[in-house]
């Protein structure tokens, strides 16, 4: 594990810096990536700072990636934010640079990079980037930088709702407010859904299978997506919806992908679910993870395993 000072010293050394994050980026991936890029550009205008990866259509209002060529990677510093595992990095040329840094808040299951900073107590990678900037005499937490980082924190804390929200998270967010960031505008933008997404939220309550343990499953298959004219990205937007029901303590939302397999979104209010995700080609945080199921049988098997986890958790009286 490296210190912020060591990471800043490396940033100062390189003329070209490429910042990457995970596939299917969420606001924290984009916020930490673009917030760090903006801070470096503002402090060192002579450096070329690029942000790579594929865009998420619904988050283009926050940030869009740039084209990064093979030549750009030559002699470059590559910084990967918010990404635990190398296969999930949204540009598999990540190792083609001269030096690699990992900055993340997920469990450090896949240790990679020449330098590394991981803090699983941080609410978000954006919170870590805010601390990194704060620790430096060169980088500045400006209103523009804070805009991206605020969106990242709001995204990963569910608007300061999840237990990962700490006193420190609130202090960092407070600094953003002091800088004049229009937090209400960002909150409203992040709360926005299309009419068809709102209709899907209603459907979720109809299709939820709720076990007596408090485990629940929602399957959003091609039929439902076609009926509501939704693509996979739009279907992902309702992942947190079941968490509002008092009957539910952990749930999985299975969203069918174009190839027929299912993207599994696991969420919990207590029982630890990332070990289950790891067993199904995934990973993530103890209370928020992602995985893959190759077919409906594996979806059902994962639900059975989730029921067992929740039942054990209940029996322990945790
Ligand atoms: P999602 O359900 O896709 O929103 O993911 C929930 C959390 O788990 C996020 O922090 C993701 O970065 C993480 N995650 C999702 N899929 C994986 C994976 N295959 N490996 C490791 N972490 C993942």
Descriptors:
binds adenosine monophosphate; six-stranded mixed beta sheet; 318 residues; five-stranded parallel beta sheet; alpha/beta; inorganic pyrophosphatase (n-terminal core); Diaminopimelate Epimerase, Chain A, domain 1
Describe the structure.
This protein has about 325 residues and is α/β, with parallel strands linked by helices. The chain has two domains: about 5-190, inorganic pyrophosphatase (n-terminal core), CATH 3.90.1640; about 195-315, Diaminopimelate Epimerase, Chain A, domain 1 (Roll). The chain has twelve helices and eleven strands. A six-stranded mixed β-sheet has the order 6-7-8-9-11-10. Strands 2-1-3-4-5 form a five-stranded parallel β-sheet, with helices on one face. Strand 6 (about 210) and strand 7 (about 215-220) form a beta hairpin. Helix 2 (about 25-45) runs parallel beside helix 4 (about 125-135), helix 2 runs antiparallel to helix 5 and helix 4 packs antiparallel against helix 5 (about 145-155). The longest helix has 20 residues, at about 295-315. This is DHH family phosphoesterase. InterPro entries: DDH_dom, DHH_sf, DHHA1_dom, Oligoribo/pAp-PDE_c-di-AMP_PDE. GO terms for molecular function: nucleic acid binding.
